[in-house]
Structures are given as structure tokens and as C-alpha cells.
Amino acid sequence: MKDFAGKTAVITGGGTGMGRELARQLVAEGCNVAMCDLSAEAMAETKRLCEVERLPQGLRITTHVADVSIEDQLIRFRDELIEAQATDKIHLLFNNAGIGGGGSLFTSTREQWEKTFNICWGGVYFGVRTFMPLLLKADEGHIVNTSSVNGFWATVGPGVSHTAYSAAKFAVKGFTEALITDLSLNAPHIKCSVVMPGHIGTSIVSNSRKIQIGAESEALTQNEILATRQRLKGMGIDTAPMSDADIEKIALDRARSFRDEAPTTAAAAAKIILDGVKADRWRILVGDDAHKLDERVRQSPEKAYTSEFYQSYRDEVGWRL
Ligand SMILES: NC(=O)c1ccc[n+]([C@@H]2O[C@H](COP(=O)([O-])OP(=O)(O)OC[C@H]3O[C@@H](n4cnc5c(N)ncnc54)[C@H](O)[C@@H]3O)[C@@H](O)[C@H]2O)c1
Which numbered atom of ligand 1 lies nearest the CA of 43? Predict the structure, then answer.
């Protein structure tokens, strides 16, 4: 797809981060956008930012509250879109919504684990199923599924369990790669891409914990304080002398530095993704850190989960997570 003007895009998780920046850049290119998110307020802000520039006559930006892990809510989103955008076709589908958390089979609850897995994997699977009829009606279409570097490297470093997110992101990558053939056989006018970002500066850390606990509060629950202590212990840090307030401060600082000290901004990431779609690339790595990790894992897969591999990679790309 060489340009987006006059087309219609669906974005899941359009409330913040990369989803918001995709919406802004698509609108700036004259593309109609229908987004969903759990947060109506966040989507209202995305819409406001999209409208800061003068919009082309008749361009539509619509917002729809829907949880991507619940198929009925995505179907409702689709029905609302048909009405609000006055169309029965879409050209672009960005399955972008995702959260972290639920890392361990032992220290996370089953609910936490499945929440992360069902959003990161189920959201992509239901998204493709739900919007396929609208993509089939367009003269050209493109599905963009967001995986992660955790779609080919199942860790964020030694000492931290990361099973639910990694399992889901590997599933997204495998599903999207297999879709290349399924689409070419059955719907050749639709292409697809898997997006694998490295560290991108977004609020995913704080958003994920709020979605996991089902509350807006910045204050950590007792269970979260315990989990943070365990995580720090896994990283070789003695938390015994630290008060709960110290632990809470470390967690808040981590969320802030994840957003503010990343090597790639959400806006730069969205541009790389959209350029990848225009160049018809099925495999979109986002950020130098993602490219370097891809090379290193291919070079020495057997060492990928050792401390030496992590330390040497971290030193090369300057990750301070
Ligand atoms: N930020 C990174 O470093 C990074 C790296 C690799 C992959 N990713 C992936 O990129 C995607 C976008 O993440 P981001 O960093 O922009 O995070 P973000 O938290 O800024 O944005 C994600 C958005 O998805 C929404 N969302 C979460 N669960 C949802 C649900 N069940 N239904 C509907 N909306 C939901 C959130 O409310 C939020 O607005 C995610 O799939 C994430 O896993 C992010």
C-alpha cells in the first residue's frame, strides 16, 4: 500500500503510546481512523491531538471503548465503526493493544498470567477474525500485528520471569508469518506485517499495572510491593533494608525512566511502522536495539538466555532497564 489518503484504518489501543502516534500520523496523511481502547479519556486526548492540524474535509476519527480480549466487544466495535465511519470496508488493521505483567507461573496469579496472554495474543487473533470481512471488501488491505523483540527472545534479562508476554508475542509472530501464505492463497489483495519493537518510550509499564489491578491508583498494592521485592531480589538486589515506600519509589522511577529514557520515541516507532507498510515489508523491526538483538540471537541462539549474553547486549545498546 503506497499511500493512506482516503483509506480507513482500525487501531486497537489507540489511547496512548504507539497506537496514539499511529493515529496522529495516519490522520496527517488523510486516512480515516477508528480506534478502540479501554480508556475513553485517553482516546479523547488522541483525537484532540489528531485534530490540532486542519483535517481534510469529511475525514473521520472515531473512538470506541472495547476490550480486545473479549470477542463480543470487538464485534460491537466493528458494528459501531460501520455506522460511525459510514463504510463497510477497512484498508488497514493495526492490532497494537498490549500489556505486560503476569510473568511467572509461580509468583503471578493465573488471572494475571491469562490477562496478559489474552490481551496480547487473543486481541490480535480476535482482531484479525473480526475485521477480516471488512478487509475483504476493500480493493487493498494490510494487517499489522504488533509482537515485540519478545516474539523472538523470551526474556527481559536474567532474574525476571516473563512467560505470559513472551508466549503471546511468539504466538503473534508465528500467526502473522503463517498468515502470509494463507492470505496469498485466499485473499491476495491483503498483506500483513509483524512489528517487533525494541524499547520504545511509552507508558506501557504504568498502564499495564493499572490494567492488571483494575484501578487508576499510582500507589502500589501490598501484592505489588511484594512482587517488586521479588523482582529486585532476582536481579541480585538486597531489599531487606528498604521500606515499602522505597520499593514504591523504585517502581515509579522505573515506569518513568522506561517512558522518558528509551532509545526510540513512540512517534519515531510509528513512522518506522508506517514506512514498513508502504515498503510492503512483512517483518518490521523497530529501533537499533531490536535490529542488534535480532542479529545476536541468530548468531548465538544457544547463549541467548545466559547472563553474559544479556550483559554484553545491554552494554552495546545502552539499555538501562
Ligand atoms: N513500549 C515498548 O517498549 C514495546 C516494545 C515491544 C512491543 N510493544 C508492544 O507495542 C504495543 C503498544 O504498546 P505501547 O508501548 O504503545 O503501550 P501503551 O500502554 O502506551 O499503549 C497500549 C494501549 O493499549 C490499551 N490497551 C491495553 N489493553 C487493552 C485491551 N484489553 N483492550 C483495548 N485496549 C487496550 C492501553 O489502554 C493503551 O492505551 C503493545 O502490544 C506492546 O506490547 C511495546
Answer: 39
